[in-house]
Amino acid sequence: MKQKHILVVDDDSSLRRVMKMQLEEAGYEVSLASDGEEAWIKLQETEPYLVITDLRMPTTGLELLRCITKEGLQTTVIVITAFGTVETAVEAMKLGAYDYVTKPVDFDALLVVVHRAMERQNLLEEVRNLRSALDARYGFEGIVGQSKSFLRVLDQAARVSQRDTTVLIEGETGTGKELVARAIHHNSQRRNRPFIAINCGAIPHELVESELFGYTRGAFTGAVAHKQGRFEAADGGTVFLDEVGELPLEAQVKLLRVLQGGEVPKIGANTPIKVDVRVITATHRNLAAMVEDGTFREDLYYRLAVVPLRIPPLRERREDIPGLIEALFLRAKKLHHLEQVTLSSGVRRRMTAYSWPGNVRQMENVIERLLVLSASDLITEEDLPEELTSASANNVSTADFWRDLPEQGISLEAVERNLICRALERCGGNQTHAARFLDISRRTLIYRMEKHGLASAEATTADNPSQG
What we know:
Elements: E1 5-9, H1 13-25, E2 29-33, H2 36-46, E3 50-54, H3 61-71, E4 76-82, H4 86-94, E5 99-103, H5 107-138, H6 148-160, E6 167-170, H7 177-186, E7 195-199, H8 208-213, E8 214-215, E9 227-228, H9 230-233, E10 238-242, H10 249-261, E11 263-264, E12 273-274, E13 278-283, H11 287-293, H12 298-304, E14 307-310, H13 321-335, E15 342-343, H14 345-353, H15 359-373, E16 378-379, H16 386-389, H17 398-401, H18 412-426, H19 431-437, H20 442-451, H21 457-460
Parallel strand pairs: 1-2, 1-3, 3-4, 4-5, 6-13, 6-14, 7-10, 10-13, 15-16
Antiparallel strand pairs: 8-9, 11-12
């Protein structure tokens, strides 16, 4: 789209020429059409920023305006009408026209209207670009993950975003709970209203109620002015309570009241304040166990967990790790203007094999650290932090890997054989890649393949396709 392109539509050829000359002198690019039908063709070819159209033509300006509105074209329309037929211009305004001018045309006045229309169109363009950026950042398609377990969570989140109900997002620290909460809000009918995130664990217990619900002047010593609470500020939008398990019991009672009646108990106020908010909560703790312990209210738990979503940790969706590494690395490079920096294959291998106990947040921090401290355009294994190069890092979190060992015991030989088979399958039969994946030498891999009767002509020639 050309930012200052104007399409002038009028069946009066002399008026078209004069308008073209006046607008071009003002710095605009101008194209012409003699009627609505010709204008419609040019609209689809050139996508002008602004259309100036006469209302009375063989194919009228009103018909052209209806087509523009119906097709949702992103252009602003100014109409020209004869003096004394302003009611027709009013009809055009109802159909979506920005403004009108009357004949005979006062070109100075027309240029003022055009300038205002261009400013409006520039603003609309900025809004569309911002919306597009928000869609890319907070849309579900912008969240990286292809594992079945993670896609199942995203599917549930996408469906619940269309329903105005409470959601409880469970998951370990760093799994992206707030990102999912923002995506739910951004894809809901409340997307144009506030999204207010509150970390309940970061607020001192004695200040929780005043932060969430606000207070009136004189409600207590030090309350020298009215304070708007977070729920009041989010009216019409979404409140996201992160680490909701950290709320003290007194605040839990008042939160339950908000959920049940949509009323905020402002400290010091005689009557509660009505609010319309959606509540999304998140926690890394086991709220059901806290209910059993008496540290979390049972009635509140069931109010919050109408739709529970559990985000699996990275160690349970290892197939998502390579895609996350790539996405976070590209984002960090763009942020720090280091587009030329790359990761070596060894770094990618170690990062893929690592269990990431801190999940996505830890990965993001490690990648940013590697970038800002990189001494060259290639990040190698020597640049990796100790947690990724230690022996335990290469053990792929064995405690988690073996946590479901059968009580009757297991065959070590069978496990080793199965691991080698799966590694070869994952690497397409390539022994070098499979050995790297298992963190052993290729010679050791071949020895163990022979030990388990896995050596074959296909396998031994897989690294050298020319022999096949």
